[in-house]
Design goal:
about 30% helix; 3-stranded antiparallel β-sheet; alpha+beta; globular; about 425 residues
C-alpha cells in the first residue's frame, strides 16, 4: 500500500552552478545558437532536487530591464506582477524556474498513462480488453475492418495497435466531437501487434476509453488524483487567460507565412521539410492554422480542436513540478501508485520485435536522445515542443528538460544534439561529485 505523504525531493542545489557548470554551459550555448529561446531543467538524484535552472528568454529578441522574481513566489501572484508580453511589437522576458512550458507529448505519460495506471490498480481497466468494448465507435469505419476488434488497450498504450502515427484532423474537424469521430474511424495502417508505430491517434482513442471508464474528464481526474496529491501546483491544462502572456510562446501562426505540417510529435512530424541551416537558425516555414501567436495555449492543432484537454498533448507545467512527479516514479509510485504497477508500465515490451516502448513510456534505444549513461531499466518520453523527461531507477536519477524549441516554427531540430550532450554532462558531473 502507498503512504499518504508526497515524495517531494529535498532541495539541495545551493552549489549547482559549480557542480553542473559544464551542463549549464551546454544549455546556455544552445540558447545562444538558437536551438531554442528558453529552457528550464530540473535534476533529482537519490531523493534530492540537485539542480533547478532556467536560461534564455521567451523569444530571440531580448528586452532590457525585464523584471526578475523569486522562483518560490506564489503561482498566480508571481505571474501577475509581470507586464504582459506583446510579441507583435517585439520585446521579450527572461525565463525562471517557475515559468510554465507546453509539455506537448509529456502529457501522454504524466497525465494519460498515469490515469491508466490508477484505473488499472482499481480494477476498472483491463489491459487486454478490446478498445471497441469501451469505444464502440472504433469499429464503425466504412471498411468494417475485422482487425479492429483485435486492438486492445494494451496495444494503444504500447503503440502497437496498427493505427497510423498522425493525421491532420484539425483541417476538417471543427469541434471536439468531429475530431474524436475522425480518430475513431481512422483506418488501420498495419495488423495489430505486428509493429510499433508511435501514434497520437491511438492515444486519442485511449483517452476517450479512460474517460468513459472513470466517468470523468481527463483534466478533472488528473487534478484530483495526480497533481494535487503530488503538490504539482503549477501543472494544468488550459492555463488561465490572465497568465498566458507569461508563458513562452511556441509558434507564430500569423498570416503571411508559408505553412508547414506542424502538430503532433510523431515520427512523421520529426522530419523537417528541408535541412535546417548549419547555424541552427529558424526556417521561414510555419503553420498558419490558427493565424495568431500561440502562447499559453496548446501547440498541437488536434489538441487545440479538442479544447486544449487532450490525451496526447495539452498539459502545461514547470520543471520543478515534473521533478516531483519523477521522484514519485523513482519512489516506486509512492504516494499514488503501487510499486508493481510502476514496474509493469515502465518495463520495455517484448513484442512487437524491435520495439523500445513500454506502456505509455519509452525506453532508451541505441543511440538514444537520453545519452549514453541511462541504464536499461530507464524510461522516459519526449515532447515535440522541445520537452523531455528521463528517469533511471538504477541511478535514482531524473532529468527534466523543458524548452520552446518550436518558436517561431518547428523546423529547427538542433535540440536532438543538445539533449544527449546535456544528459551526459549532468551524469558525468554527478559521478565526479561522488
Amino acid at each position: 500500500m502507498t503512504s499518504s505523504y508526497p515524495s517531494t525531493p529535498l532541495e539541495k542545489f545551493d552549489h549547482q552552478d559549480k557542480v553542473f557548470a559544464q551542463a549549464f554551459t551546454i544549455l546556455q550555448q544552445a540558447v545562444d545558437q538558437q536551438a531554442f529561446p528558453a529552457a528550464s531543467v530540473a535534476v533529482t538524484h537519490q531523493g534530492n532536487l540537485v539542480a533547478l535552472k532556467a536560461v534564455g528568454t521567451f523569444t530571440y529578441e531580448e528586452q532590457p530591464g525585464a523584471p526578475h522574481f523569486s522562483p518560490g513566489a506564489p503561482f498566480l501572484a508571481s505571474f501577475a506582477r509581470k507586464p504582459a508580453l506583446s510579441l507583435p511589437k517585439g520585446g521579450d522576458f527572461p525565463v525562471h524556474p517557475s515559468t510554465l512550458f507546453d509539455l506537448a507529448s509529456l502529457t501522454k505519460v504524466v497525465a494519460t498513462t498515469t490515469m491508466a495506471m490508477l484505473l488499472y490498480e482499481r480494477g476498472l481497466l483491463d489491459l487486454e480488453a478490446p478498445a471497441a468494448a469501451i469505444v464502440p465507435e472504433f469499429t464503425t469505419d466504412k471498411e468494417k475492418d475485422p482487425r479492429r476488434h483485435e486492438v486492445t488497450l494494451h496495444m494503444l498504450l504500447a503503440h502497437s495497435s496498427g493505427l497510423p502515427a498522425h493525421e491532420k484532423f484539425y483541417l476538417k474537424a471543427r469541434t471536439r466531437e468531429e475530431l474524436l469521430q475522425a480518430a475513431f474511424t481512422t483506418p488501420l495502417a498495419a495488423n495489430p501487434a505486428t509493429q510499433a508505430v508511435y501514434s497520437d491517434i491511438g492515444f486519442i482513442i485511449l483517452g476517450a476509453a479512460l474517460e468513459r471508464l472513470a466517468d470523468e474528464s481527463l483534466d478533472r481526474f488528473c487534478q484530483r488524483e495526480i497533481f494535487a496529491p503530488l503538490s504539482m501546483t503549477h501543472t494544468t491544462f488550459n492555463p488561465p487567460v490572465e497568465i498566458r502572456a507569461q508563458i513562452p510562446p511556441t509558434a507564430d501562426e500569423r498570416p503571411g507565412s508559408k505553412e508547414e505540417p506542424c502538430g503532433s510529435d510523431t515520427p512523421v512530424r520529426q522530419l523537417p521539410q528541408a535541412s535546417p541551416p548549419q547555424n541552427g537558425s529558424q526556417q521561414a516555414s510555419r503553420s498558419t492554422f490558427r493565424q495568431r501567436v500561440i502562447q499559453g495555449e496548446v501547440y498541437d492543432e488536434n489538441a487545440s480542436v479538442l479544447g486544449g484537454v487532450a490525451p496526447q498533448a495539452g498539459l502545461f507545467s514547470t520543471a520543478a513540478d515534473l521533478a516531483k512527479f519523477a521522484q514519485t516514479m523513482l519512489d516506486q509510485g509512492n504516494p499514488i501508485l503501487r510499486p508493481e504497477t510502476v514496474t509493469l508500465f515502465t518495463r520495455r515490451e517484448s513484442t512487437p520485435p524491435g520495439t523500445t516502448r513500454a506502456l505509455g513510456w519509452d525506453t532508451p534505444s541505441t543511440p538514444s536522445l537520453s545519452g549514453k549513461y541511462f541504464s536499461p531499466q530507464s524510461f522516459g518520453h519526449l515532447g515535440y515542443t522541445g520537452t523531455s523527461l528521463w528517469i533511471d531507477p538504477t541511478r535514482q536519477l531524473s532529468i527534466t528538460l523543458l524548452t520552446n524549441r518550436t518558436w517561431p516554427d518547428s523546423s529547427n531540430q538542433t535540440i536532438n544534439q543538445v539533449r544527449p550532450k546535456l544528459h551526459d554532462a549532468i551524469i558525468e558531473a554527478l559521478e565526479k561529485k561522488n
